[in-house]
Amino acid sequence: MICATLSAFAATTIAADRPVTVSVIVPVVGAVTGPGGARWKTDVELRNDSRAEETVSLTLPTAPDQPIIVTTIPPGESVRFGDVVGEAFGMESALSPLIVETLGRRSVIVRATTYAVRGMEVSAPQPIALQYGNPLAPIRVLNGLSFSDEFRTNVGLANLGDTSAEFILALQRLAGRNVAVARLVVPPNALVHAALQSLFPLITSGNDFSVLIETSAPDTYVYASVIENTTNAARFVQPAISMPLPEVRQARQ
What is 41-110 written as a DSSP string? Predict the structure, then answer.
């Protein structure tokens, strides 16, 4: 049974009395319309591979009103949402990270895929890499990005913290050599999902770019998706961890 309610996990206000939970972050889920009228959706599957019933909450932290639902999953069974934003949350349109929080010390298995629907055409589902925990990584790198007549790239910057987060983005084609630098401030509990061209408007086209992203703010997540323009076939790009580079540090000055 699914309930549109505030999470039972947050019912207590004293930290010592809060139940133990484990969280998994899906960096982005959505129900949005893209170029050419393609309707992008996200499927989410939750599987309980334990021997006991599991209680799970799902939250869209950057969507209006931060909706939360709670469901229970019997042992050995799964819950699947064919369009998690529409089916689970009843929203026509939204774009947000998804927090999957399991009551206890072990998470249910989470799978997420995204795809585009245009008329009778459905693009191949693309798995979305998950984020376990919140390791603080000052520099993260998104590799293999393109924007041209054949491909487009979207970059996502999520701030799930309580204060604004500054991101510094350095576009590179060769490691250690910045082509362009951009700065963005993302408000708390907000997601910026932007085309690569809008972040670096002086760069007209190119392939095999990397974007180094630096922030000292906790509870931040980044991702990219490279999309083939004719078919809407998508490739989700998970960030790699990198050490701060002199060129990026200089861009902060």
Answer: EEEEEEE--SSS-EEEEEE-TTSTT--EEEEEE-TT-EEEETTIIIIIT--SSEEEEEEEEEESSSPPEE
HSE of 113, CA atoms in CB hemisphere, 13 A: 13
- What's the rounded Cα separation, in Å, for the pair 85 and 96? 9
What is the residue-wise DSSP string for 100-155? EEEESSSPPEEEEEEEEEETTEEPPPEE---EES----SEEEEEEEEESSSEEEEE
Residue given tokens 């639902």 in the structure block: 69
At position 121, the amino acid (one-letter code) is E
Report whether pLDDT(5) > 50: no
Give the domains, in start order, of the chain with CATH numbers. 2-132 (no CATH), 139-251 (2.60.290.11)
* Chain segment 35-58, per-residue pLDDT in tens: 888 999 999 999 999 999 999 999
Strand bridging mode 139-147 / 240-242: antiparallel
Instruction: Quick: pLDDT tens for 69-111.
Output: 999 999 999 999 999 999 999 999 999 999 999 999 999 999 9
Sign of the CA dihedral running 198, 113, 213, 150: negative
pTM above 0.85, yes or no: yes
Task: Show the tokens assigned to 141.
Answer: 């790198």
Q: How many helices (H) and strands (E) does the chain have?
A: 2, 20
